[in-house]
Design goal:
Oligomer: single chain
Number of helices: 20
Structural class: alpha+beta
CATH topology of the domain at 465-616: Jelly Rolls
Strand content: 15-25%
Distance between the termini: 73 Å
Shape: globular
Number of strands: 16
Radius of gyration: 27 Å
Largest sheet: 7 strands, antiparallel
CATH class of the domain at 465-616: Mainly Beta
Length: 622
């Protein structure tokens, strides 16, 4: 009896802590002036979701109209930058080109509180998340330890960043967690023979929770179509347990929710696929602004027609992406979701008991979900240029919480926190700034130890800076200026290209730093010639191309030339195959010309100047 009382007191203390955290987050949401913090501008896909929530709140529809634009400008002076709009070809009406589930959930708070309603809603979601995570393990570990584990699982990961996004990533995280919690709670915490459980526990032990889980997974499947595979672990579990009626009910409810949500989309817009049809994204100029129309406003075509989409499968790309999924520099789960990665490791080490098999089933479901992205969109596994780490993994992340084995060591929270801070501490202390400038977050010494996801070159976060991606590079051959390759800056330790007197391009590398560049060519290169020009002081320069390197000891103003051949390129299968060559440059010293006597007015800290000359070999075969 004393043990039961202590458990009850422990649970009440944890519930008070959860309530305090939720209230603190609610107050933060009320105080958080989203338009002011964002400088009046949206980032990534946030404009579409906020505008859609605003339209549902005020107009009760999914349609993009003039009054929608007026309301957005009233709060965000930069307008709905990046908004996705879909046009019905028959009616010529315009609709928002994103799923409406998250905006619908957001709409009541947006109606009452405007932009502040976003974080108020997220605060309530966070409270539900912490409550569910605590209840999941409190009978085994104690409520306080369970709450600490919940905080350690979520806070030291980029889930903290997506809490601040006006986007469905955090919503989907909580939605899918809630579904798996409703299914697994009764399996992990079955009713004991002499137990008289409270009403809330009686409810969670009832069979209806499986059906409710199926409904939530159906909604998650509409929010992101790839989430539909999340129903598989539950269905396989019921099949293995031979719970036939419940299996049928789960499948029927899941199907009804998916069909009905897409049915509403079809009735409201004329398209079942909110990413298909005539769909475009708009920046700076928008339909109804300055009498611009859907056709003549600044736009980018963004059609994703599932019926027309044919994924390209390449074994090497698959193997690369499988490795990148875990240890990629821009989106690997090891650095950006370290607590989840640790949970998987702990399952492998400690999850071999009789009662642990369901965890392996959940891991199998997570693997299937990951493979959907790796196989279907091999050139964009992490979610596009505007993302922070792998935003698609936010849909898989909740499954990893259930991987924690019964014998999870007490040091898990400490290890999760230390590992998370070691990798992404700089992101956690500035989530908004990181989200607005995602091209910078991967440049810490720890993250630079990890491999670059070359299979996704055009969709890495560095692509948010158009002047540092796919930069045309020209060289002069026999007196003629000709295109040589596209240049990509993988960091900010090299400056933008310049032009010499002959019309050839050149770049400066920052002094005392390491810069990484990628040369992208249509055909393989027979030879790459690099001329290195030193600054006005002694300098030690390391230069490598595709791993073949050399060290140059340069005197002030000295120039040296290196030639690289017999290089094996990385084949990048984006639309048509192309060849990637990685160039790494390290300099030991630098100067700022404007600080030197008689120096020209240049504020940059210059280390060494590079000029490239390339010679093509034989074309690649498709």
């Amino acid at each position: 009896m004393n043990g039961v009382r202590r458990n009850g007191e422990d649970l009440r203390a944890a519930l008070r802590a959860i309530a305090a955290i939720t209230i603190a987050l609610l107050l933060l949401g009320l105080a958080f002036d989203m338009p002011a913090v964002l400088g009046g501008s949206f980032f990534s896909d946030c404009a579409t979701y906020y505008a859609l929530a605003d339209s549902l709140a005020h107009d009760f529809d999914l349609q993009y109209e003039r009054q929608d634009l007026q309301r957005i400008y009233a709060d965000f002076s930069g307008g709905p930058s990046g908004v996705f709009i879909q046009r019905n070809r028959q009616t010529q009406r315009l609709y928002y080109g994103k799923a409406y589930i998250y905006p619908l959930f957001l709409a009541p708070a947006v109606l009452l509180l405007g932009a502040r309603g976003v974080l108020v809603t997220h605060a309530l979601l966070a409270g539900v998340l912490l409550l569910g995570m605590t209840l999941m393990w409190e009978r085994r570990w104690g409520a306080k330890r369970a709450l600490v584990a919940a905080l350690a699982f979520t806070l030291p990961s980029v889930a903290t960043v997506y809490y601040f996004w006006i986007a469905p990533e955090f919503f989907n995280f909580v939605l899918i967690f809630a579904a798996f919690f409703l299914w697994l709670y009764k399996e992990v915490n079955p009713r004991e023979a002499d137990e008289e459980p409270p009403a809330w526990r009686v409810a969670l032990l009832a069979p209806w929770t499986d059906v409710a889980a199926a409904a939530l997974l159906g909604a998650a499947g509409f929010s992101k179509l790839s989430n539909g595979v999340m129903i598989l672990p539950l269905a396989v579990f019921l099949l293995a347990k031979k719970r036939w009626l419940r299996l049928v009910a789960v499948c029927v409810v899941f199907a009804v929710v998916v069909v009905s949500t897409f049915g509403v989309q079809q009735l409201a817009t004329g398209y079942w696929n909110y990413q298909g049809g005539e769909r475009k994204s708009f920046y700076e100029q928008y339909p109804f602004a300055n009498e611009k129309s859907f056709d003549d406003a600044s736009r980018v075509d963004r059609e994703t027609d599932i019926g027309k989409y044919k994924p390209h499968f390449d074994v090497k790309d698959f193997l690369h992406n499988f490795a990148y999924f875990f240890i990629g520099r821009f989106g690997g789960i090891l650095p950006y979701y370290f607590p989840a990665f640790l949970a998987m490791v702990l399952l492998i080490l400690y999850g071999r008991g009789k009662g642990e098999w369901f965890r392996w089933l959940v891991l199998g479901g997570a693997a299937v979900a990951a493979l959907v992205y790796i196989v279907m969109i091999p050139t964009n596994v992490i979610g596009g240029g505007g993302t922070v780490a792998n935003r698609y993994f936010m849909n898989i992340l909740p499954l990893f919480f259930f991987l924690l084995p019964a014998r999870t060591p007490k040091w898990f929270p400490v290890a999760a926190a230390v590992g998370g801070v070691l990798f992404i501490g700089h992101i956690l202390i500035s989530p908004i700034s990181t989200s607005q400038r995602p091209a910078y977050y991967s440049e810490t010494p720890t993250l630079r130890l990890l491999p670059v996801e070359y299979t996704m070159l055009n969709d890495l976060p560095l692509n948010t800076e158009s002047n540092r991606r796919r930069v045309p590079w020209y060289q002069v051959v026999d007196g003629k200026r000709e295109f040589a390759f596209f240049l990509y800056h993988l960091d900010h330790n090299s400056y933008l290209r310049g032009v010499n007197d002959k019309g050839e391009h050149r770049i400066w590398v920052k002094g005392g730093s390491r810069a990484e560049l990628v040369l992208r060519t249509v055909n393989p290169l027979e030879e790459i010639t690099v001329r290195v020009s030193n600054i006005g002081r002694s300098n030690r320069v390391y230069l490598s191309v595709q791993g073949n390197g050399a060290v140059l000891e340069l005197k002030p103003g000295e120039k040296k030339t290196l030639k690289f051949n017999e290089m094996q390129p990385f084949i990048y299968n984006y639309l048509n195959p192309s060849c990637l060559y990685t160039v790494v440059v390290e300099t030991s010293a630098g100067i700022t010309p404007r600080t030197q006597p008689g120096g020209f007015d240049d504020w940059r800290y210059l280390g060494a100047m590079l000029e490239f000359q390339v010679e093509e070999g034989q074309p690649t075969s498709d």
